[in-house]
């Protein structure tokens, strides 16, 4: 009796083991198959891009970055002196102290109060995207002065005064959603089309300015000394994909007894997706290789480079706007 039972049990065990082995084998086969599939897609994509790269990047140049910009006489009169002045600002600033990167499970940028918290930081949120905070002393600068800069910087010479080393080319393009309001939020619906280097690498960007206050209580910021908010989505031109959503930023200028501070906040690499041809082959690949794209976009090095770039461009901008407005206290 006892023997029979254990024989039956052993047989059952064996059947189960066999079943498991079968399942494992099926799973392995599926994994191998999908790996093959991924490999083939990758090869086809590489070949496709190889053949079309030149032509595609030329298309982007001629369609989006061929606008002729002209600063006019007024700006040209100051061209060299402002350019040199900002080069000198960069020298004064010297090398940047980049904060050590941390990890958090929640970035609280949804709440406007978080836009004016003090402190520099680089944090990876949920292991998934970067939240970068950069504060800049802008003593003497008012919301109107900063607004006026952003409304007028529509030519490359002027754009280069802002950051002589990184800024290369830039004009404004009016989108149909443009709202010329003089509220707290400036440039809503305008696109700043630029070429700028970040970490030495050239980027072609559409910075699409938005109202970050929709559905939020921003009015309370006014009572706390906030004089201007600038916020935009960062659309990156990538060959051969077209425009890809990369992240967004919020710059908040707060003026109080201790002076003016610009609080800059970036959220990068969250919800990366194609904007132009979501059904295209290239976008399909972007989705498929999201992990890879994110690995590049989300590298710690890139987050640190964004931090450095922002520190530099806002420091030089504060000094430049002070100079343009004859504010001598900052000399
Ligand atoms: C900025 O300059 C470009 C190039 O000259 C021009 O096409 C565009 O209309 C200008 N934008 C604004 C908002 O003035
Ligand atoms: C303005 O200055 C820059 C830097 O020196 C120079 O490259 C550019 O040609 C100048 N533009 C004009 C219109 O003089
Ligand atoms: C700054 O001073 C210069 C020279 O005195 C003057 O031409 C210019 O209009 C002043 N700018 C402002 C914004 O007051």
Question: Top keywords for this entry?
Answer:
331 residues; alpha+beta; Alpha-D-Glucose-1,6-Bisphosphate, Chain A, domain 4; nine-stranded mixed beta sheet; 8 helices; 27% strand; elongated; binds 2-acetamido-2-deoxy-beta-D-glucopyranose
Give the SSE layout.
Layout: H1 2-64, H2 72-93, E1 101-104, E2 121-125, E3 129-137, H3 143-152, H4 156-162, E4 167-174, E5 190-198, E6 201-209, H5 219-223, E7 226-238, E8 242-256, E9 259-274, H6 281-288, H7 290-297, H8 300-324
Parallel strand pairs: 1-2
Antiparallel strand pairs: 2-3, 3-9, 4-5, 5-6, 6-7, 7-8, 8-9
Helix pairs in contact: 1-6, 2-4, 2-8
The structure holds 2-acetamido-2-deoxy-beta-D-glucopyranose (NAG) (3 copies).
